[in-house]
């Protein structure tokens, strides 16, 4: 079993996955975990993932799988799709990884149009409690209605590579326009032609063929996103909003795919905006959802104007971006500027609540979260934070009741599942897996599963879960603390000490590691 690995959503995974599952929002704050500190300071920034892996005993086969996947992806991007296909298949058949890795690979292969391989990765998954929701969402989002034979799949994957990575959109468009047979038989071929035409700035052709693709396969969300983008660039960009409104109503229960819908919404709003400050505001939010935080900051800053009420919105968005970048002072400053003009701004109050929570100022955090709760669009997210904060204030019964209320009306709040898991041991395993079924990049839940298995002396399973957390964030001090516990429980005191010391290098304030080293 075992991916911002993989994945990642970090150096290895990040190199591999273009869009880090941003909304995470970037990493949910936890409650029942004393490992939420502001002092994450990487001591050895020059070390590469592979070096850290060897030095800290991450399962080597997992690293091999993702390194080989990256090599195959390089071939794919160079339009050497046949060779890449063979390499991907070899990895899936012969290189051991885990459910986390197979989930990430399945999504990326589906994105590239290699649906057979995506399905092969799905068949490799074993823990259905975690993976089934991701598989269902990947298929709903990407898969064509009519499956493609091998030759046609490779042909269209080469077309996708040429469009996205080799600046050959016009050539692909012209070739596909001559291939009436494949267009007649496969909805995905019409999508690829529309994508090529859009990138070649041939909007009438793009509109024509995306409409064919959507008509043939009205359930494919990827087609609908492209349709919205095409119309947003047309003479009447407001027409794109009807597609966005439809997308927002779709029941997506997977964090990365929800991020993509939020992203296209901001893109369409950017294209529809009349004033420069509004365009830059929505473009900055689009960059945020795309995980490009530096561009988001720069673009949002350019949206600031003499309109103080509008600046409150901009600063609220800036605070969210800075928080995701772990630039806490900048996040706090931007949020305070926002609430100075608009005391009830939900984004700014959420940022302030999160910062107060991190600083253990729980009463202040609660005050901010209750302001957010008044906004119906943010109500559920705010209730999760309120319930977490009530836990910290010792009001366990109120917290439990609120979490139960949240899950009664919404089954997509991974943080609610996580916090109930931490509070109720008999629900722990099932609810941690429910949290990961919604957001496989939710690092706190992987640590939770590792703790659970450590308590049962299931060291191999605990190591597997920890390796997932490592790939999501190799600089999270909790990874090294739990590795220390893992080796301590196996009577390897020397190795345990190395891990505890590494933990303290990353976070000198980790009391648990200090205690283990008798500091």
Largest sheet: none
H and E string: HHHHHHHHHHHHHHHHHHHHHHHHHHHHHH
Give the radius of gyration.
Answer: 23 Å
Average the pLDDT over all residues and give the rounded result.
88
Structural class: mainly alpha
Terminus-to-terminus distance: 36 Å
What is the tally of beta strands? Answer: 0
Describe the oligomeric state of these chains in a short phrase.
Answer: single chain
Tell me the strand percentage band: under 5%
* Parts with pLDDT < 50 across at least 5 consecutive residues: 1-59
Supply the number of helical segments.
30
Helical amount among residues, as a percent range?
A: over 70%
Based on CA inertia axes, which overall geometry fits? Answer: globular
Plain-language structure description:
The protein has 519 residues and is an all-alpha fold. 71% of the residues lie in helices and 0% in strands. It has 30 helices and no strands. It has helices at residues 11-16, 49-55, 60-77, 81-94, 99-111, 115-124, 128-142, 150-165, 169-177, 180-185, 187-199, 203-216, 221-232, 240-249, 255-272, 276-289, 293-303, 308-324, 328-341, 346-358, 362-373, 379-392, 396-409, 414-423, 428-438, 443-455, 459-472, 477-489, 493-506, 511-516. Helix 13 runs parallel beside helix 15. It is globular and about 75 Å long. The model is unreliable at 1-59 (pLDDT under 50).
């Amino acid at each position: 079993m075992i991916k911002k690995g993989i994945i990642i959503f970090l150096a290895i995974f990040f190199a591999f996955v273009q869009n880090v599952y941003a909304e995470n929002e970037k990493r949910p704050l936890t409650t029942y975990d004393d490992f939420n500190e502001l002092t994450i300071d990487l001591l050895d920034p020059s070390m590469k993932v592979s070096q850290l892996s060897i030095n800290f005993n991450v399962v080597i086969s997992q690293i091999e799988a993702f390194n080989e996947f990256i090599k195959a992806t390089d071939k794919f991007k160079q339009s050497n799709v046949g060779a890449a296909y063979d390499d991907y298949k070899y990895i899936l058949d012969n290189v051991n990884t885990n459910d986390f890795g197979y989930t990430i690979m399945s999504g990326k292969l589906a994105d590239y149009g290699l649906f057979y391989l995506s399905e092969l990765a799905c068949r490799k998954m074993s823990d259905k409690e975690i993976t089934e929701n991701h598989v269902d969402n990947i298929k709903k989002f990407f898969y064509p209605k009519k499956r493609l034979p091998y030759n046609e799949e490779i042909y269209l994957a080469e077309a996708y590579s040429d469009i996205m990575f080799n600046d050959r959109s016009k050539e692909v468009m012209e070739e596909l326009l001559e291939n009436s047979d494949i267009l007649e038989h496969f909805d995905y071929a019409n999508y690829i032609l529309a994508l090529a035409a859009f990138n070649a700035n041939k909007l009438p052709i793009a509109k024509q063929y995306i409409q064919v693709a959507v008509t043939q396969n009205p359930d494919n969300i990827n087609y609908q996103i492209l349709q919205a983008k095409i119309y947003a660039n047309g003479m009447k960009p407001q027409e794109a909003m009807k597609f966005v409104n439809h997308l927002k109503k779709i029941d997506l229960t997977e964090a990365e795919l929800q991020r993509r819908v939020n992203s296209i919404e901001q893109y369409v709003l950017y294209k529809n905006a009349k004033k420069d400050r509004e365009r830059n505001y929505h473009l900055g939010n689009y960059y945020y959802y795309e995980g490009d935080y530096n561009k988001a900051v720069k673009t949002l800053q350019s949206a600031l104007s003499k309109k103080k009420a509008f600046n409150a919105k901009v600063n609220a968005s800036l605070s969210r971006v800075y928080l995701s970048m772990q630039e806490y002072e900048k996040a706090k400053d931007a949020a305070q500027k926002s609430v100075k003009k608009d005391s009830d701004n939900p984004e700014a109050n959420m940022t302030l609540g999160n910062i107060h929570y991190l600083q253990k100022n729980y009463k202040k955090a609660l005050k901010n979260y209750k302001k957010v709760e008044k906004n119906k669009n943010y109500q559920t997210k705010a209730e999760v934070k309120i319930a977490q904060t009530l836990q910290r204030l010792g009001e366990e019964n109120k917290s439990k009741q609120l979490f139960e209320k949240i899950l009664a009306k919404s089954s997509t709040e991974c943080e609610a599942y996580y916090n109930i898991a931490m509070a109720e041991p008999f629900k722990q395993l099932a609810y941690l897996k429910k949290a990961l079924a919604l957001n496989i990049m939710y690092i706190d839940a992987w640590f939770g599963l590792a703790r659970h298995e450590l308590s049962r002396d299931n060291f191999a399973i605990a190591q597997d879960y920890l390796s997932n957390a490592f790939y999501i964030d190799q600089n999270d001090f909790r990874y090294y603390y739990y590795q220390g516990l893992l080796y301590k429980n196996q009577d390897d005191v020397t190795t345990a000490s190395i891990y505890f010391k590494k933990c303290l290098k990353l976070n000198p304030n980790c009391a648990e590691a200090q205690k283990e080293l008798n500091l």
